[in-house]
Amino acid sequence: MEHRDALLNQTFNARTRTIRELSLEIGLKHGLSTLDVTKLLDTVASLADHRNDIIHGWIHFDEERKVLVFKNKNKPGRRIEATAIDGFNRRLLKCLLAFGSFPTNLLCQIAD
Question: Buried (b) or exposed (e) across 57-82, using 16+ Cβ within 10 A?
Answer without folding.
Answer: beeeeeeeeeeebbbbeeeeeebbeb
